[in-house]
Design goal:
The complex is a heterodimer of chains A (424) and B (336). Chain A is α/β, with parallel strands linked by helices. Chain A has 2 domains: 86 residues, Urease, subunit C, domain 1; 305 residues, Metal-dependent hydrolases (TIM Barrel, Alpha-Beta Barrel). Helices cover 28% and strands 23% of the residues of chain A. In chain A, the strands form 4 sheets. Chain A has an 8-stranded parallel sheet. In chain A, strands 3-2-7-18-19-20 form a 6-stranded mixed sheet. Chain A has a 4-stranded mixed sheet with strand order 5-4-1-6, with no helix packed on it. In chain A, strand 2 and strand 3 form a beta hairpin. Chain A is globular, with a radius of gyration of 21 Å. Chain B has 336 residues and is an alpha/beta fold. In chain B, the strands form 2 sheets. In chain B, strands 7-6-5-8-9 form a 5-stranded parallel sheet. In chain B, 48% of the residues are buried. The chains are: A alpha/beta (424), B alpha/beta (336). At the A-B interface, helix 6 of A face helix 4 of B.
Chain lengths: 424, 336
C-alpha cells in the first residue's frame, strides 16, 4: 500500500523535525518526507491538514494480562487500547500467570501479538524465576526469545548479595535491568502515600523513604556492577534528585514516571475511591512538582502508562482490599496534551518523552520518523477533544479519568504503514 | 479540611448515613447531643423503650471483634423498638470466601433498613454507603484507623454533661493517636464544637503525619501537656505496638505517658478522665485513677447507649425522608 499523508505538521523530536510536510509511505516504511518521490503512485490519500504527525508512542511499561488474567485483559484488547492512545510500541510486564520467566511464555506472547496485536509488543522478562527474588531466570535464553529487559517489579530480592550477583550476571551480557525501587519493609502494610491525606483518612502510609532508601542502595550496586539500569515508576521528588545526581556522576541510568503520577496527587484519596489505589502510591503535590521538573530536565527521559487493567470486581471493595492500578494506556496522547495545555511541558518535549526517550531507554528501534524508518505514527488533532470512556477499548474500565474531557484527539494510529486505529 | 460529605446527608441536609464527623456542621453535632440528652431520661425509666424505630430492622454487622460497641448498639436499637439481628461476620461468610458486597446485599435482600458496621479497613462504611447499599442507612461502628463517630459523639456528650461549654475547655488526648479512629473522630468533633485548645500527647512513633490539619497542639512531654487541662482522654495501647518497634516496652510507656495520680494533679483540679475502653491498668492508666470519681469511663458506656439511640433514630428518619423524596422524584419523572 502506498500512502500519502497530506498537509500534516510533522513533529519528530528525534530527528529535530517540526514542519508542515507530506509523508509518503510504501511497504510499511517512510519512503519520503516533503516532495513526492518519482514514480510514487498514491493508493490512499489521508488528508491531514490541521493534524500533527508524530512517531507512534513508545510505552515501556504496560500490563497486558495475557496469559493468565483474561478477566482483566488480553493482548488483543489491550493493544487495541494502546493504538487508541497513539501507542505503536510497548513493553509488556512479566507479571502474568505463568510468570514470563521461560522462553515459552515469551513466544506465546509474541505469537499472540503478531496474530492479534494492534501494537508492537516487546516483552520484559522476569529477573528471577517465578519473580520469587532468589534464583535467576535464564536471562540470555529469554533475551534470545525476545525479552528486551528484565524486572522483578516490586518483589524484592531475598538478599543484597543475590541482587549484586544478579546485576553482575546481567552486566556480563549487557542486559538492561529495570528497578522499581521500593523497600518492602519500609512500605510494609502501606496502601497510600504517607502524608496528610492518608493520615486523615486513616489509610496506612508508604513513606517517601521506601523509595529513596531502595533507590540509593540500587544505585550503589549499579555503579559497582556496571549494569545497564533503568529506574521505573519513580514517584518522589527526592528519588528523581537521586537519579539526577547519579547521572551527573556519569552513571548510565535512565528513568521513567507513570503518566498518571504527573497528573494526580494523594489529594485524590479523600473520598476513598479505589480508582486511585495504585502501587507505588500517588504522592504529594511537591513530589508531583519534582517529577514534572525531572521530566522537563530530561532526568526522567520516559513517560510510561504503567497500564494495569482490572475487572470491575477487583475495585469493588474498601480501598485497602482492592487491587492497585489504573487502566491508562489509551489516554497516553490526551493526557500528554493536558500536560502541554497546562504548560507543564512544551509539545516537542512531551512527544520526545513518549517516543525516542523511552525507545532509547529500552534500546528499541522505534520512536522516530526519518526516511527508511518503519511507518509507525500517530496523527492527532491538537484542537480536538477526547471524551474519556467513549468507545473505550481496554477490558479494564478502572480509570479515574472516565467521564472527563481531555484535550487532543487521536485521529489515526498507523503501525507498519497500516491503520491500527482510526476515529473521526 | 474537606467539604461536607454529601454522601451521608440527604437532600435536606439531614443524616441518611452516619459515616464520619468530618464535614458535619456544628448544629448537627449539637442536635445529636441534645437528642442523646433526652434519651438519657429514657434509660433511667422503668420502661426503657420508645417507639421511634418500630417496624425497622437493624443489622449489626461486625467484621471485627467488639463487645461494648456491639452491645450498646444492640441495646440502643432495642430501646428504639427496632428489630435487631447481630452477625459476627468475621467468623461466618467471609471465611467462606464471600465478598463484603455480597454479604451486605444478602442482608439487604432480607429487607434490612439499617446496617451498623465495623470493619478493619478504613473507608469500609463509605464504600458500602456509596457502592453497595445507598438505600440502607449505614452507621459506622468503626472503620480501620479512620473513624469511630459514635464514640466521638459519646465522648462529646460526656464532656458537655460534666464540663459544659466547649469554648472554654482545654482537652488532652494521650497515647496511640496513630492507630486510633477514636482520636481522629474526637479531634474533628472537638474542633467543630469550638474547643480552643486540643492537645495530643504521644511519642513521635504514635503520632500520624499531618496532625496540623486537625488544628491541635502536639506535646511529647505529658507533664507539660496535661498542665491545667479540663479533660484527659486516654487511649488504649495495644500489645502489637511493642512488637512493631514503636515502643520499647509497656513499662517505659507507662513511665513516660501513663496517667498516674501525680500526673492527674497537674491538670485542672476538676479535670475529668475518659477512656474508650477496654482499659489496660498499669499500661496507660493507673488503677487508682481509673477507679477514682474523676474517671468517667463507666459514664461513657451509659452515655454511649443514649448517643447511639440519637444517631440511629436521626439517621433512620433522614434515610426514610430520602426514600420518600426519591419516590416522589421517580413519580414526577414518570408523569413527564
Amino acid at each position: 500500500m502506498r500512502i500519502q499523508i497530506s498537509g500534516a505538521r510533522l513533529l519528530d523530536p528525534a530527528s529535530q523535525l517540526d514542519q508542515v510536510c507530506d509523508i509518503f509511505i510504501e511497504g510499511g516504511k517512510i519512503a519520503a518526507l516533503g516532495d513526492k518521490p518519482a514514480g510514487f503512485s498514491v493508493e490512499q490519500l489521508i488528508e491531514a491538514r490541521d493534524l500533527i504527525a508524530v512517531p507512534g508512542l513508545v510505552d515501556i511499561n504496560a500490563s497486558l494480562r495475557e496469559p493468565g488474567y483474561g478477566r482483566k485483559g488480553n493482548i488483543a484488547s489491550e493493544t487495541r487500547a494502546a493504538a487508541a492512545g497513539g501507542v505503536t510500541s510497548l513493553c509488556c510486564t512479566p507479571f502474568t500467570k505463568p510468570v514470563l520467566d521461560t522462553p515459552a511464555v515469551a513466544e506465546l506472547i509474541l505469537d499472540q501479538a503478531r496474530d492479534h496485536g494492534a501494537a508492537r509488543v516487546y516483552p520484559l522478562g522476569a529477573f528471577t524465576q517465578g519473580l520469587a527474588g532468589d534464583n535467576l531466570a535464564e536471562l540470555v535464553t529469554l533475551r534470545d526469545a525476545g525479552c528486551v529487559a528484565f524486572t522483578n517489579g516490586l518483589v524484592p530480592f531475598a538478599s543484597n548479595r543475590l541482587l549484586r550477583h544478579a546485576l553482575e550476571y546481567a552486566a556480563t551480557f549487557d542486559l538492561t535491568v529495570i528497578f522499581q525501587p521500593q523497600d518492602p519493609e519500609l512500605a510494609e502494610g502501606g496502601i497510600a502515600h504517607e502524608g496528610a491525606a492518608a493520615s486523615f483518612r486513616g489509610l496506612s502510609g508508604i513513606p517517601e523513604t521506601a523509595e529513596t532508601v531502595a533507590l540509593s542502595r540500587d544505585l550503589l550496586l549499579v555503579e559497582q556492577s556496571g549494569v545497564r539500569a533503568h529506574f521505573s515508576q519513580i514517584t518522589t521528588a527526592r528519588g528523581a534528585k537521586l537519579i539526577a545526581k547519579a547521572q551527573q556522576r556519569g552513571l548510565p541510568v535512565t528513568a521513567d514516571v507513570a503518566m498518571y503520577q504527573l497528573i494526580l496527587t494523594d489529594e485524590a484519596l479523600l473520598d476513598f475511591s479505589s480508582l486511585y489505589h495504585v502501587q507505588p502510591p500517588l504522592r504529594s503535590l511537591a513530589d508531583r512538582e519534582g517529577l514534572r521538573q525531572a521530566v522537563r530536565d530530561g532526568v526522567i527521559s520516559a513517560i510510561a502508562s504503567h497500564h494495569q487493567p482490572h475487572e470491575a470486581d477487583a475495585k469493588q471493595d474498601p480501598f485497602a482490599a482492592t487491587e492497585p492500578g489504573i487502566s491508562s494506556i489509551e489516554l497516553m496522547l490526551p493526557l500528554a496534551m493536558s500536560l502541554v495545555q497546562e504548560g507543564v511541558l512544551d509539545l516537542p518535549s512531551a512527544i520526545q518523552r513518549l517516543t525516542s526517550g523511552p525507545a532509547q531507554a529500552m534500546r528499541l528501534n522505534a520512536g522516530s520518523l526519518s526516511v527508511g524508518a518503519r511507518a509507525d505514527l500517530v496523527l492527532f488533532d491538537p484542537n480536538g477533544q477526547t471524551l474519556v470512556g467513549d468507545n473505550w477499548q481496554s477490558k479494564g474500565s478502572n480509570c479515574p479519568f472516565i467521564g472527563h474531557c481531555l484535550p487532543g484527539r487521536v485521529r489515526y494510529t498507523m503501525l507498519n504503514g497500516r491503520i491500527s486505529f482510526k476515529q473521526g | 479540611m474537606t467539604p461536607a460529605c454529601p454522601l451521608q446527608l440527604n437532600d435536606h441536609g439531614r443524616l441518611r448515613h452516619f459515616l464520619s464527623l468530618d464535614g458535619l456542621p456544628r448544629e448537627l453535632l449539637t442536635e445529636i447531643l441534645d437528642t442523646a440528652d433526652s434519651f438519657l431520661e429514657v434509660g433511667a425509666r422503668a420502661v426503657k423503650k420508645v417507639p421511634l424505630m418500630r417496624g425497622m430492622t437493624v443489622c449489626n454487622v461486625f467484621f471485627e471483634n467488639s463487645t461494648r460497641t456491639r452491645t450498646t448498639f444492640e441495646l440502643a436499637a432495642k430501646r428504639l423498638s427496632a428489630d435487631v439481628i447481630t452477625l459476627n461476620v468475621s467468623t461466618s461468610s467471609t471465611s467462606k470466601g464471600e465478598t463484603l458486597t455480597d454479604t451486605l446485599r444478602t442482608l439487604e435482600a432480607m429487607a434490612a433498613d439499617m446496617f451498623v458496621m465495623r470493619h478493619a479497613d478504613s473507608g469500609a462504611a463509605h464504600f458500602v454507603a456509596e457502592h453497595v447499599s445507598p438505600n440502607v442507612a449505614i452507621i459506622n461502628g468503626g472503620d480501620g484507623r479512620h473513624a469511630h463517630p459514635t464514640q466521638g459523639m459519646l465522648d462529646m456528650l460526656t464532656i458537655r454533661r460534666h464540663k459544659g461549654d466547649f469554648s472554654q475547655l482545654k482537652v488532652a488526648i494521650v497515647g496511640d493517636i496513630l492507630h486510633s479512629r477514636v482520636a481522629r473522630s474526637n479531634m474533628i468533633a472537638l474542633k467543630t464544637l469550638g474547643c480552643p485548645d486540643i492537645r495530643v500527647i504521644a511519642p513521635k512513633t504514635l503520632l500520624p503525619i499531618g496532625l496540623e490539619q486537625y488544628g491541635v497542639n502536639v506535646y511529647h512531654n505529658i507533664d507539660q501537656g496535661l498542665k491545667d487541662v479540663d479533660v484527659i482522654i486516654m487511649l488504649r495501647l495495644q500489645r502489637e505496638r511493642m512488637r512493631s518497634g514503636l515502643l520499647p516496652s509497656e513499662s517505659e510507656f507507662y513511665r513516660l505517658f501513663g496517667l498516674s495520680e501525680q500526673r492527674l494533679a497537674l491538670a485542672h483540679p476538676e479535670a475529668i478522665v475518659m477512656h474508650p475502653g477496654p482499659i489496660n491498668r498499669g499500661v496507660e492508666i493507673d488503677s487508682s485513677v481509673a477507679d477514682s470519681p474523676r474517671a468517667m469511663i463507666l459514664n461513657q458506656v451509659t452515655y454511649g447507649i443514649a448517643v447511639r439511640m440519637a444517631v440511629l433514630s436521626m439517621t433512620m428518619s433522614g434515610q426514610n425522608e430520602q426514600r420518600h423524596l426519591d419516590a416522589e422524584k421517580a413519580m414526577q419523572q414518570e408523569a413527564h
